[in-house]
Amino acid sequence: MNFDRIKEKLEILADAAKYDVSCASSGSTRKNKNKGLGNSSGMGICHSYTEDGRCVSLLKILLTNHCIFDCAYCVTRKSNDIKRAAFKVQEVVDLTIQFYRRNYIEGLFLSSGIFKNPDTTMERLVQVAKKLREEENFNGYIHLKSIPGASDELMREAGLYADRLSVNIEIPTEQGLKQLAPDKNREDFIKPMRKVKQEIQLYRSEKKKFRHTPVYAPAGQSTQMIIGATGESDAQIMYTSAYFYKQFRMKRVYYSGYIPISYDPRLPMIGTEVPMMRENRLYQTDWLLRFYGFDIRELLNKEHPNLDMDIDPKLSWALRNLSFFPIDINTADKQWLARIPGVGMKSVHKILTGRKHQTIRWHDLQKMGIAMNRAKYFIHCPGTPYDFKDRTSSQIKGLILGHTTSKYHKTYNGQLNLFENATTSLTLSS
Amino acid sequence: MLLKYDFTFEGLLTAVFMMYDEKIKDLQLLRPEQSQPSLFSDMEYIITDDSKASRVWKGIAKKGGVRTQQLLYRVFLSELPQMEALILSFLRVFFQTQGTVVKNPAHPLTSKLLEIQKMIGREKHRMDAFVRFMQTKEGWYVATIAPDFNVLPLNVTHFKNRYADQHWLLYDVKRNYGFFYDQEKVQEVQLALESTAPLTHHIKTFCLSEEETRFQELWKLYFDSTNITSRKNMKLHLQHVPKRYWKYLTEKQPILKK
Ligand code: SF4
Questions:
Q1: Would you place residue A158 in the very low, low, confident or very high pLDDT band (cuts 50, 70, 90)?
Q2: pLDDT on residue A404
Q3: Residue B226 near chain A (CB below 8 Å)
Q4: Which atom of ligand 1 is nearest to the CA of A113?
Q5: Mean pLDDT, to the nearest integer, of B196-206?
Q6: What is the pTM of this model?
Q7: ipTM strictly over 0.95?
Q8: Which residues of B touch A278 (CB under 8 A)?
Q9: Residue B45 has pLDDT above 90, yes or no
Q10: Residue A241, number of CB atoms within 10 A of its CB
Q11: Which domain, by its residues, includes A228?
């Protein structure tokens, strides 16, 4: 191994890959086969954390940052004047194995700029995964990027070696995409996604008939959207997200606050703050959709196209729908308990088990990990010291905010100003 | 009654056996290194007896299942000063209540045990994550580490399943013992060091394979390159990777130049 050369490549190709926020290594169980190397245990392990607090569990690199496309939001774009590099297939295999053996990582997340054409690129990615599985008997985690426009045959093969496949939508709206990535069209993303979804479904049904059906992408598909690059509204982002969850059975949609990397006038200026608070609110909304039984139309709609930055989306929904409250802790069914601000799903389950044995009283709730400073305005339960008189939403909001200080205070103020103009005039798509 | 035991889990179980067999009411245990109040200069030692220990162990399983066994073992590994007293009081109630106490998480003893078990679980997972192997000249993979609690016995299965095709040594430098896997079986080992230098230093200076430091450099480089400076959040970072673990993390070492 030529270490100096590898070092140079690694620096360039890790740096270029870091904007993809997904680093999950969970959702797959692969046993160690025939005394080979590695396994995936379902949970995934974070071996380290970057200084920005993100989990490091995979070797996340590009195979190459040569690219024939010119997507404005991407550091790798053709017109950007940067150092380019390309790993050989064997080099990626060796790095992965060497890092894995030292317990640095759970596996590999391999993406790439598009060189020559989508199929040549995808083929090279598949080669890496195939070598790892077949020559190295590697059972760790592999996440491959599906290259937009890659053929069905290659996508089929990719899933035989990879645990997860992902295509990033990056830009939430079609107009945005046209503007910023003129060489790309939505159909190119959709094609590999659709193929992977079909293969996963096929695998599930075949598996029932034949025990030895080869596993196909056991950790499913994910995608990512860049937030705040095109002045899109939160509604546009989350409707797109809901659509992808539903249509393509995505395991995860990731939201990545745009990090300014260019002076392109179509994009936020370099030095603009990364919209971390907004990113956080979007993730909360995503959770409400996936685990709390909310419909996206309840959370974001024409009257309310953007999430509040100062309060969480569930509280925001509750304040807009005060007529549903108070909710009786001892009689309400699960889906209603889940809608109480300050009550997480864990607490919902504690309430459900607890009330089988006895009536739940105020002081019981305090022990269940519920954020009472928010919940108390929305519940009914014996022993409550809070007297439920008619208060308006803004009164309640004022009371709650008086008691909580957000760690993001500084950030979201700046951000709100930035998007004030951009978001008011947008309509909902999809 | 104050008795000394050898600070092994079997020793502790033997003590439990004696507590019942000899009807000792107020049994208190001391560890070998604990100095004894001079009053009891001729203090008795408990002689660890595997067959007695195993009878207690089975008794625990019968009334509380594997989960109770696991719970107690993990609490033992915590090495907390009050650990013996806690386990003894718990077992008294446990046998009195035919094991039901373990199902009541609100009981003060059970809740204390569960709390400790949680801490141990967390530390175990940290070790799964933070162990960093270094390759030696023989092609073995060696890691030194100093967990807050004595959790390495809990990590063995994970490492055995994952690194089935390499020799490895996991060594606890704080407690001076470790586990060695030779691609067949795992053995508990203790190293006799000739030099007086700390083990980690000794390994880094004399034992590493030629390529080892190069891979360490590559990893460190990767770690730095994957960071996004404009998102820096040291508070969150330290919450995930407390400083006391840094000395065992390759990515947190100064670059080694040969
Ligand atoms: S195709 Fe991918 S790598 Fe190439 S410029 Fe567009 S986003 Fe970047």
A1: very high
A2: 55
A3: yes
A4: 3
A5: 81
A6: 0.87
A7: no
A8: none
A9: no
A10: 25
A11: 3-268
Residues A198, A338: one domain? no
For A102, which of B215, B227, B229 is closest by C-beta distance?
B215
Is residue A117 domain-shared with residue A196, that is, in the same domain?
A: yes
Residues A347 and A206 in one domain: no
Other C-beta atoms lying within 10 Å of the C-beta of residue B255:
9
Average pLDDT over residues B216-224: 93
To the nearest 10°, report the CA torsion of A144, A145, A148, A149: -10
Torsion over CA of B146, B152, B154 and B157, rounded to 10 degrees? 130
Choose from A81-95, A272-286, A338-352, B224-238 the range with maximum mean pLDDT. Answer: A81-95
Q: Are strands A221-227 and B168-172 parallel, antiparallel or unpaired?
A: unpaired
Shared domain for A217 and A151, answered yes or no, is: yes
Higher pLDDT, A388 or A392: A392
B141 contacts A53? CB cut-off 8 A: no
E-strand spans in A236-336? 252-257, 327-328
Q: Is A378 helix (H, G, I), strand (E, B) or coil?
A: coil
Residue among A15, A17, A46 whose CB faces B129 most closely: A46
| Residue with CA closest to ligand 1 atom 3 | A113
Task: Please report whether residue A314 resides in a domain.
Answer: no
Residues A262 and A330 in one domain: no
Put simply, the answer to whether B165 touches A35 (Cβ < 8 Å) is: yes
Pocket test of ligand 1: the residue of A71, A116, A167, A267 to mutate, having most ligand atoms within 8 Å of its CB, is A71
Q: How far is the CA of A67 from the centre of ligand 1 (A)?
A: 6
* Euclidean distance between CA atoms A6 and A9, whole angstroms: 5
Residue A202 belongs to some domain of the structure: yes
> What kind and span of H or E run contains B171?
strand B168-172
Whether residues A339 and A213 fall in one domain: no
Say if residue A422's pLDDT is above 80. Answer: no
Contact yes or no for B221 and A7 at CB 8 A: yes
From the list A11, A47, A137, the residue facing B221 with the nearest CB is: A11
Residue B59 half-sphere exposure toward CB, CA atoms < 13 A: 17
Query: Which pair of structure tokens corresponds to residue B32?
Result: 């070998």
A156 plus A261 within the same structural domain: yes
For chain A, give the percent of residues with pLDDT over 70. 93
B162/A15 CB distance under 8 A = no
User: In the structure encoding, which two tokens stand for residue A255, read together?
Assistant: 């939201």
Calculate what percentage of chain A has a pLDDT beyond 90.
55
Same domain for A341 and A260: no
CA distance B17 to chain A (A): 37
Residue A255 lies in a domain: yes
Cβ–Cβ under 8 Å, residues A13 and A87: yes
Which parts of B1-82 fold into alpha helices (H)? 9-21, 50-77
